[in-house]
Amino acid sequence: MEHPGEIWQEFDYNGERLGGISPSEMDESKIKVFGGVAVMLYRFTNGEVEFLFQHRSKYLMGNPDKWDVSAGGHTNLDENTIDAMVREVNEEIGVEIDKNKLEFAATYLRREVSVIVSLYFYDYTGREDVFHFNDKEVEEVKWVKYSEVDEFMPNLKNQLRKDKIFFHYLGEWNAKILEKYGNS
Questions:
Q1: What's the rounded Cα separation, in Å, for the pair 96 and 52?
Q2: Which of 54, 61, 104, 110 makes the best surface tag, with the fewest CB within 10 Å?
Q3: CATH code, domain carrying 168
Q4: Residue 81 has pLDDT above 60, yes or no
């Protein structure tokens, strides 16, 4: 969802920060890429790992009525990725997270959508499922067992379904979480 007055951080293909650009100027500019963040909340329950996915509003211009990562979005001009992550989680699903508990997975370039993604995971085990959809971008959330992600895949937005790097890290994190909770 566009937020009036926002200026997004622009990068070159090497990840060097350039200037800023408003979302409405993106099509007209010679933007290289913009910074994006994505976080997957997870929990360990009944011996299995579950990941939280969000159902995007049917009223959004981009990927309406599709499922996406727990929370994510752009990085504002001069904003660091951690602060962007905390902001997006709060805006989209109404959850306060401790930035010191974010688990970094990777930063990678997605040329086909002109974004440098910083991917994080966040342990939500033992927390109450209280989510608030403050900015009308999200209609609902759903916990999906890792063992059922392949079945869930047709519901995901197209860009996410095609993101092989994301799914590599989802599998890697599943193994790390199982090890963390002594169930490897």
A1: 15
A2: 61
A3: 3.90.79.10
A4: yes
